[in-house]
Amino acid sequence: MGPGICLMVVGAMLTFAIEDHVPGLDLKAAGVILMLAGAAVVARAFRNEVSERMVTRTESSTDTDSPDRIVHRTVRERRPD
């Protein structure tokens, strides 16, 4: 997500903050293109986001002399589309 935000910031600077004339390059159009590309990168990052959660389970043993076992497991899931 960081590169997308960086693209949007650079694009906003080109579009709104810099008032220079470069022959053969429209800075405002280049800025808008960079902002759109950054927004696409951020949107894709949100779409492919993986969530993690910790699952804890206690397993009781049938033998009275052995203690119960606690099992910790990390589950990673993609967000549904």
What is this structure, in a nutshell?
The chain has two helices and two strands; from the N terminus they run H-H-E-E.
Which features would summarize this protein structure in a list?
81 residues; alpha+beta; two-stranded antiparallel sheet; 2 helices; 2 strands; 25% strand
Characterise this structure.
It is a single chain. This protein has a domain of 46 residues. The protein has two helices and two strands, in the order H-H-E-E. Helix 1 packs antiparallel against helix 2. It has a two-stranded antiparallel ribbon. The chain starts with a helix and ends with a strand. The protein is rod-shaped and about 85 Å long. The longest helix has 21 residues. With 81 residues, the protein is α+β, with helices and mostly antiparallel strands. Helix content is 46%, strand content 25%.
Shape: rod-shaped
Summed up, the helix count is 2
Distance between the termini: 18 Å
- Main sheet strand line-up: 1-2
Regions with little confidence, pLDDT below 50 for 5+ residues: none
Q: Helix share of residues?
A: 40-55%
Beta-strand percentage range: 15-25%
Structure class = alpha+beta
